């Protein structure tokens, strides 16, 4: 038993030395920043955001992705920039539908609570090249809550989702945000209010203030009508690339909308959101529901 442990230790040391040599070789060949650490995986995960800018514009795109795969051997990689996107929010807010709508072009009519996590690769084609989001769909139910933190590790961007027809899902947004920031720290985050096609909305424009307090991007979306469905991904791609002019040249195929959103009513609501943004922030989000 002792001999086996010694051999395992020697093998581990040998592999680590070889890995460090490969990383140094890639780093020198690609002229990557000297500040890029080769030891701390979490630091390399953060540096991948910086590497996206190199990869999108560099002829060494595949080699840069290879560098990332060596630095983070447990992370899925492809021959183009890829990022871990964590989607969180209360159960029933439409997280799984949001992801599967893009992948399959079909709206999930039957809701089933997600057990654990599902990872879905979602590709986008931009004017700078192809990128991939690995969408981590985590469980929103509190009874699965003990598993959440492990899924946040190495998260590079996030979407927090709530249901505009259910006040409680919005009131729980600060908790989701706090959980994310505790593990992922400073990553780009989009807040999404889903189901805006439903007329009986409970979360009004003046009540949506959390994104202003935390400097998040906010979009209202609808899975059934495809309304604003690509905007969260475009915002995150621009933030990750550091390029406000990045745009999609192709969109994933989506099924025809099952409902047609009242565009006039939604435009009115968007105007109310803009007007509310000019008002002073309340001291507490709960005050908005009184």
UniProtKB/TrEMBL annotation:
The keyword Plastid does not apply. Its main location: nucleus. GO terms for cellular component: cytoplasm; nucleus. GO terms for molecular function: GTP binding; GTPase activity. SMART domains: RAB, RAN, RAS, RHO. The keyword Manganese does not apply. This is GTP-binding nuclear protein. Found in a nuclear export complex with RanGTP, exportin and pre-miRNA. GO terms for biological process: protein import into nucleus; ribosomal subunit export from nucleus. GTP-binding protein involved in nucleocytoplasmic transport. Required for the import of protein into the nucleus and also for RNA export. Involved in chromatin condensation and control of cell cycle. It is found in: Nucleus.
């Amino acid at each position: 038993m002792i001999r086996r442990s010694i051999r395992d230790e020697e093998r581990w040391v040998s592999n680590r030395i070889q890995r460090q040599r490969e990383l140094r070789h890639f780093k020198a060949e690609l002229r990557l920043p000297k500040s890029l650490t080769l030891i701390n995986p979490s630091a390399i995960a953060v540096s991948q955001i910086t590497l996206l800018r190199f990869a999108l514009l560099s002829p060494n795109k595949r080699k840069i992705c290879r560098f990332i795969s060596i630095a983070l051997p447990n992370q899925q990689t492809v021959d183009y920039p890829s990022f871990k996107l964590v989607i969180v929010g209360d159960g029933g807010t439409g997280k799984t539908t949001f992801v599967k709508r893009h992948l399959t072009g079909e709206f999930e009519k039957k809701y089933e609570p997600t057990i654990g996590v599902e990872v879905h690769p979602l590709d986008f084609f931009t004017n700078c090249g192809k990128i991939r989001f690995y969408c981590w769909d985590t469980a929103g139910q509190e009874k699965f809550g003990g598993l959440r933190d492990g899924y946040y590790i190495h998260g590079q961007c996030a979407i927090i989702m709530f249901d505009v027809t259910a006040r409680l899902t919005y009131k729980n947004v600060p908790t989701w945000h706090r959980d994310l920031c505790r593990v992922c720290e400073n990553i780009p985050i989009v807040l999404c209010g889903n189901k805006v096609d439903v007329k009986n909305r409970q979360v009004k424009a003046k009540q949506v203030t959390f994104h202003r307090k935390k400097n998040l991007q906010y979009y209202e979306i609808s899975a059934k009508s495809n309304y604003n469905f690509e905007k969260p991904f475009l915002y995150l791609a621009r933030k990750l690339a550091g390029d406000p002019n990045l745009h999609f040249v192709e969109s994933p195929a989506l099924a025809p909308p099952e409902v047609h959103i009242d565009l006039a009513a939604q435009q009115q609501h968007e105007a109310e959101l803009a007007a509310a943004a000019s008002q002073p922030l309340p001291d507490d989000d709960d005050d908005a529901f009184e």
